[in-house]
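Re: export button greyed out
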Amino acid sequence: MAVRISGAQASDGHAWPLLSPKAGMLFVLLLALLLLFLLDIVLGSVQIPLESVIGILLGRGAEHPAWEKIITAIRLPKAATAVIAGAALSVSGLQMQTLFRNPLAGPSVLGISAGASLGVAVVMLASGGAANAFAIRQLGFGGSWLIVIAATLGAMAVLLIVLGIAVRIRDNVVLLIVGIMVGNITISLISIWQYFSEPEQIQDYLIWTFGSLGGVLGPQLAVLGAVVALGLLVSFSASKSLNVLLLGENYARSLGMSTFFVRVSVIAATSLLAGSVTGFCGPIGFIGIAVPHLTRSMLDTSDHRFLMPSCCLVGGILMLACDIVAQMPGTQTTLPINAVTALIGSPVVIWVIMKQRNLKSSFS
Amino acid sequence: MNNSILQTRDLAIGYPAGKRLGMSGNRRSGNRSKIVAEGMSLELREGELVCLLGPNGSGKSTLMRTLAGVQKPLGGEVLLSGTRLERLSARDGARLLSLVLTDKVLTGNLSVYALVALGRYPYTGWAGNLSPRDEAVVRHAIETTGTRMFAHRHLGDLSDGERQKVMIARAIAQDTPVIMLDEPTAHLDLPNRLEIVRLLKMLAREQKKAIVLSTHELDMALQTADRIWLMRPVDAPHGERKSSIVSGIPESLVLDGQLEQAFRRKGFEFDLHSGSFRFRHDAERTIGLVGDGVRAYWTRRALERIGCRVVPGTAVPQHVVVAGENGTGHWQFFDGSTRNPHKLQALSDVLTAVGVSASSGEVVR
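Workaround output, generated via the alternate export path:
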């Protein structure tokens, strides 16, 4: 048995276990993240040698000005967006799973993604006029401020409804069901909207739902980064309370935790994280549900003070990996990121969970 | 000298009117609040082990939750360490009273050590980092409960008895003068039950903690409790169910018949000698029993179990004689029709013989 010898060596030979076991794992994950980040920038439809990429990143310039443009204006923001989106979705998923004590919970369960989609649908489908649609297309879907604002407003609207209900309900399971129902209502509203829309408009909307990491540039990247940073800050500060919430709400209350405060904090953080990412990148599925499971399995802990940063790293890693696959290195085609996350990620999760077999013990 | 740590004054417990969404429950009462029990004045002292007894649905859990501040009282007040409960901040309350519940915990990936450390929540800063003193308290709690051997294991890998000890360790780590436990011995086997109770008793004696535990185990409560809070249903107007509560030392509650009244049902009787409830058999036949000692006692139990009234002596035509010493002993059964007894080597054979003679129609009443 691998017992770490600590200062408090016990008389019976068992050392006291450490509260945060594999701190070294964080370092390994960080290294993997950096590696994949680099790989994501190197690979793409245009082949740029590694030395040139590093040269450009270090600000030394490159032999081809076009390469520098590709790296700094396209690939670097895209990789950064991937890391930000992966971290944001994973952390919000982790909080949802703990708050609702449900392994299937994710950032989308409270209808946040659906709300964002509704906002986008309203803009794309209801604007109706060909001029508007043309304007949107000119601006590009991923990066259109109009789309971002619409998505954020949609997410916020749904969230305010859920929050209003959350204040009145004591039980988190009921809140979960209410959230799913609100999401369903939102999705059906989108369906009705689609039914009365032109095929071209529906196609525009569909393309948005495929998700995209590209197109979040300059000021938009800064806004996304700032909002996600704020959301992560709120999330990290709730770590202690989320740990206690593992004991259940009654225990948490008996330990002096305000369940109301934690619930509001988690919902607010999730709306910031998932709402902003959905707004800028479209509804990216799977990551939010899968990464918390992956992280828990790999690190074998439920301590949120440790899980939060780990989820950020694992989420970023997985998102970068998906992006690398999505751009199909060596070819001119790219796949929609939303399809790739589930296609690549699901087998990975199945494999890890089958191997570790401790998912069940986390939730039953 | 008053070392009372928790008091209630004219406390009424129950569920308030209106929205109760998400709580298990009582839709029946509509917009009126449902009072489970009222007018309760209780006192809990340091170093005292109190067992909360009462039939299912009498409001034990409601009382526990109200005393712990998880649920609001409908009337009256709860004083914890002299302060009204609603005036205490959540954090201060958590430093005075800890709970051990029957709730499932989802800490599959949390080590026992980390879980017990969660008990320090009311003492740690926003990051939840343990100070050396916090860690010492956690370790002490683990040592006290004898869970040291599996401090590194996950809660999901423990047996029910071990898990219960860990949850008690968590409550001890919370370092409160009052600990309340909701059916801590449910689902446990006898050795584990005894161990848990012994642990609680020790905490009350040595660390002067005031401990309240709800239980359905009368025997255990009578043997260990310093005081019993007995909730019992009383008839209220309009067909409502309400409970009243009496507080007293176990022996008094037995002697003045309070215990029997609280649990009385058809088909049971309270045995004043053993302090436990027994099936009341509507005996159809009478069997004599000769003999003494342990074997005679268990022979009597067996005969009663299959529905016989057992009287001492051979006056009854059908009788059983317990013969010989332990180990070499045997039984003699006189079936009332022949003079010669059946010599039987096993108690099960005695029961069979008694059963056969009953069906042969020669039963002597």
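Residues 19-29, 361-365 of chain B have pLDDT under 50 and may be disordered. The button fix ships in the next patch.
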